[in-house]
Amino acid sequence: MGHVGEPRSAHARDEELGMAVALAQDGDEAAFAVAYRLVQPGLVGYLRGLVGDEAEDVAGDAWLEIARDLGRFRGDGAGFRGWTATIARHRALDLLRRQKVRPRTSALEQDMLELPGTHSTSDQVLETISTEEALRLISDLPRDQAEAVLLRVVVGLDGPSAARVLGKRPGAVRTAAYRGLKKLAAQLGARGVTDDGPTTLGESR
């Protein structure tokens, strides 16, 4: 399967998000609300994979930090998604350290299946599973694969952005996401999923 880029609508959303963030940094509260609306669903979906029912509370804490430090952010819409995911992940890990439990990836909700992701492997996998199956199957993935899938498909980050959130090399995250999606596809018997490698996720090597 050849190289496939991100959906055009994803680029449009990130363009809208970038403009909203720029206006919000100038004090436009309505623009900040737009940025929140564009980012929050994916952010909560990701956090549900880490902290389950605590996701909304952790997201709230993250947004307080995002609002406080907004003036220091530099980047475009896609960069803002990565920046907010990094902040949210830190807050989630703080909570998990306090609870002394490992991140869990078994509490995803329907928003995972409704959010647009990348083409090819992820599309084939997510289009064939119900919420219940997603909860069960992703919880069975190794943690690195589960979190990579969440960041790539739920939050909508590209490989390098997901790698920055996780503090890993892009190649490692790309491979983890690909392997996770391939495992899901194999379990579901999804058709048309090839072994071309991580570029199936829509990235260059």
Automatic annotation (TrEMBL):
What PANTHER family does the entry give? ECF RNA POLYMERASE SIGMA FACTOR SIGK, RNA POLYMERASE ECF-TYPE SIGMA FACTO
Q: Which InterPro entries match?
A: RNA_pol_sigma-70-like, RNA_pol_sigma-70_dom, RNA_pol_sigma70_r2, RNA_pol_sigma70_r4_t2, RNA_pol_sigma_r2, RNA_pol_sigma_r3/r4-like, WH-like_DNA-bd_sf
Give all residue intervals belonging to the RNA polymerase sigma-70 region domain.
36-100
Q: Does the keyword Cell membrane apply?
A: no
Pfam families, per the entry: Sigma70_r2 (PF04542), Sigma70_r4_2 (PF08281)
Transcription regulation as a keyword? yes
From the Swiss-Prot or TrEMBL record, give the protein name.
RNA polymerase sigma factor
Q: Which organism is it from?
A: Streptomyces aureus
Q: SUPFAM superfamilies this protein is in?
A: Sigma2 domain of RNA polymerase sigma factors, Sigma3 and sigma4 domains of RNA polymerase sigma factors
Q: Which UniProt keywords apply?
A: Sigma factor, Transcription, Transcription regulation
The family this protein is said to belong to: Belongs to the sigma-70 factor family. ECF subfamily.
- Domain (RNA polymerase sigma factor 70 region 4 type) spans 132-184
